[in-house]
Design a protein that fits this description.
With 174 residues, the protein is an alpha+beta fold. The chain has two helices and seven strands.
Length: 174
């Protein structure tokens, strides 16, 4: 009988031991719900940015870029309650460089290259899923965010083929 009680106590105690975990940190979520937001101009809400045709020999090393092409996102009718915003680009990331967009899958697509989105200066890369630089908003005038897209080599050897990608963007009010 004592052996059964001891075995029962051990089994019961081990069941409760798994419940007592120590935590390693805390994450506090913060944010704000706003009454209204800016409107994205219909001219820049859904757009195509043509990076053109690039000869594969334009890329001789990882990180080489080609075909810088500008594009804009225009915000209109911003309420006075929002004063600053940035743009966050999302989408599938390149397997060799997670800061770049992955090329759209398909037969015969180019390899060893992704698409980078840069700030207006064409040198500051905006990693995918990261907000761009913040910009002051105007309640009376349009606010234009200027960006540059480029092909970026992710391998020393780039193979030819179709090289397209897609991104969704979100306006982040801050």
């Amino acid at each position: 009988m004592n052996n059964k009680l001891i075995a029962l106590a051990i089994v019961t105690g081990s069941a409760f031991a798994s419940v007592a975990h120590a935590y390693d940190g805390t994450i506090n979520f913060t944010g704000r719900i706003i009454d209204s937001a800016c409107t994205v101009s219909t001219l820049t809400k859904d757009q195509k940015v043509d990076l053109g045709e690039v000869v594969r020999t334009s890329f001789s090393a990882v990180g080489d870029t080609a075909s810088p092409t500008t594009f804009d996102i225009v915000l209109q009718s911003c309420p006075p309650s929002v004063t600053n915003a940035s743009v966050k680009f999302d989408g599938p990331t390149d397997p060799d460089n997670s800061t770049l967009l992955r090329l759209t899958a398909g037969t015969g697509i180019a390899n060893g290259v992704g698409i980078g989105i840069y700030e207006q200066d064409a040198t500051t890369l905006i990693p995918i899923a990261t907000s761009s630089a913040s910009k002051s908003l105007s309640a009376t005038d349009d606010t234009t965010f200027n960006f540059v897209a480029k092909y970026v080599a992710t391998a020393a050897a780039v193979t030819p083929g179709p090289a397209a990608a897609a991104t969704n963007f979100t306006i982040v009010y801050n």
